[in-house]
Amino acid sequence: MKNLYSEDAFTGLEAAIVLIAFVVVAAVFSYVVLGAGFFTSQTAQATVHTGVSQASSSMELVGNVYGIQSTGNNYLKYVNVTIALTAGGTPIDLSSMVVSYNDNAGGHNPNLTYEGVYQNGAACTNSLAGTTGSQSWCIAQKINNQTGEAMLDDNSQMIIMVGMPATATPNTQMTINFQPAVGAVLPITRTIPGGLTAVQPLY
Known about the structure:
Elements: H1 7-55, E1 59-61, E2 65-69, E3 76-85, E4 92-93, E5 98-103, E6 108-109, E7 113-117, H2 121-127, E8 136-143, E9 151-152, E10 157-163, E11 173-179, E12 186-191, E13 199-202
Parallel strand pairs: 7-8
Antiparallel strand pairs: 1-3, 2-3, 2-13, 3-10, 4-9, 5-6, 5-11, 8-10, 11-12
């Protein structure tokens, strides 16, 4: 009796099934690899954008830091710091900035109170009156400011008064950190001189 079953035909069907299986597996693997690559590139892109945003929103110190003596006391009442944007920097809202203080005599304050923006130094000084120990800071003067009240923009400068604690005595090393909401922190480290006068630059 003649055998109707063909081994050749069955072998061809098996080969087709195996080929299709290989194609499907390769397609799935390619999709997974491409997906992982897209995710990695998007993460890298987000990291670059964040880095550029941080780097383009930095502040810098302008001129000297001046210490003002507390009348009748042997410590500083406050210091005056002038800040501006670095070249090409984007505007920074200083009202959301965190100012911290630390010295080697035991003085420490991780978040000084923000008192606001004033049109002259005297008004800013009055706002700091009686803050020794609790400490606060304010914007005493704006120079070439074109935008909002506390917005540090291009080509502008702001003079900031930072209240000092009673530990800000002669020969004390202190550090004031200005941390904006976006951008790098600006640390300022100075040593109070051995003898205080009404006003002195700090180095």
